[in-house]
Write a structure and sequence with these properties.
The structure holds 2 protein chains of 2 kinds.
Chain A: H1 8-30, E1 36-37, E2 43-44, H2 46-67, H3 72-89
Antiparallel strand pairs in A: 1-2
Helix pairs in contact in A: 2-3
Chain B: H1 14-35, E1 37-39, E2 45-47, H2 51-57, H3 60-90, H4 96-110, H5 113-123, H6 130-137, H7 148-176, H8 180-188, H9 193-221, H10 225-230, H11 242-252, H12 256-290
Antiparallel strand pairs in B: 1-2
Helix pairs in contact in B: 1-12, 2-12, 3-7, 3-9, 4-7, 7-9, 9-12, 11-12
Classes of the chains: A mainly alpha, B mainly alpha.
Amino acid sequence: MDWIAWTLPTALFFASIASALAVMSLLAIKRPSTPRVGALGIETARGDRLFLTLLGSAFINLAWIGFTDLPQYFALGICAVFAFCVFRWV
Amino acid sequence: MEKTANQRAWFLVLPVLLLVAFSSVIPMMTVVNYSFQDSFGGNEFFWVGLEWYRELLRSERLWDALGRQLMFSSIILLIEIPLGILVALCMPKKGWLASLCLVLMALPLLIPYNVVGTIWQVFARSDIGLLGRFVTDLGFEYNYAQNAADAWVTVVAMDVWHWTSLVALLCYAGLRSIPDAYYQAAEIDQASRWSVFRHIELPKMRGVLIIAVLLRFMDSFMIYTEPFVLTGGGPGNATTFLSIDLVKMALGQFDLGPAAAFSLMYFLVILLISYVFYTVMIASDKEEAQS
């Protein structure tokens, strides 16, 4: 597996994504969610909201890298707020 | 009696999951890992953090290529979609002529991408090419290898020639699915040709048109082979689209780290656009089902 060039941060990143997917799958079995129409005007289920959160977070982080020199932890904070908003209102 | 769920069926999708893991997930993980590291060959990697992302996001190279890519996709959509609808409307509805038209329309779609590039490379040459010579004889100074505007016109013309028939075939399928009763009702109402198109044909084609726009946008957004064979991304960087720039970086310069960061950002943009199109398609399908 050397050619994949694993590092601890990237391994943790993928582990967290895999964990999120596993938790969502378990939740879908134990407590299925009903799709709803939120602030974006589109019907979303819990999985859609996770996808939107991950995609939006990627762009927030990229924008942070591109436009500021501040530490990336601030971007992670914004992502957490963004995730809350998506799961609450979208 | 309580119905028990049979979970054994999940094993049936296991081969697909394995296939996807080896063809997509593992390569994707590798790209993510490369994007945070620098390599000097010999399978040795050094952690550089967000350096490649910072460098790329603050360089003009990425934004210029993205701008060219968006402009190219917009231009070809603006040409191919109306032209495809027009061609579909003009195609005969039945008889041997309809079959002949369908076969002829399908021909450009069967030609491999690199062959299309080669055909147009010869076709548009101002010294020996049929098109190039014709345009030159008309009095225009045309040379796609030296003039950026000429290169753009040629690349766009090539794409329109290659892919308009796909839009036309999709629209034709949409048109053929409209029941005759709609046309009969329009005839009784003495509706004009424009009214028939505006109120019957266009709404009924909406589903296939969204698919056509999605397919053409995504395909044009990832275009590589045809412009690479035709212009090589030139003159200068005039037709260097995202994928051409990415290949130059990854294979030409062998900058694996920056190329990995570039490809991930490219992937995210495609993912975002695909999601928007997917959402629009689903919403459109629901609206259609309700009406």
